[in-house]
Amino acid sequence: MAEDIKLCHLTDIENGESAGFTCPVKGRDQLVLAVRKGDQLFVYINSCPHIRIPLNLDTGFSDEGLHGGKFLSLDKQHIQCSTHGAQFQIEDGFCIYGPCKNESLEPVPVVIREGSVYVSK
Ligand code: FES
Hints:
Rieske Iron-sulfur Protein, 0% helix
């Protein structure tokens, strides 16, 4: 049975804000982005569907696997590519504007237990 990896505590991300992480997904370390909406955390592989680069410009790593990066539009209603301005729906990663319109970010399923967020390895 797959082992769950703790990504973060839900409250590590302020409500309505986003964060980037490095996390094992499908057997290898990958950049992921997360957006919190209330008690939910929407997590995606941090790779744009059209040219497969990270959506944020700042992908510097910290010791804790959490790294900086802005992933949201100014009004914080969409995930946004820092380079091209493409916008994705937070809830399903579907691109509504930009060069990858009608494509989607790859979701990373998570479970939240006692306030901690886990990714299946
Ligand atoms: S890398 Fe795809 S919209 Fe920027």
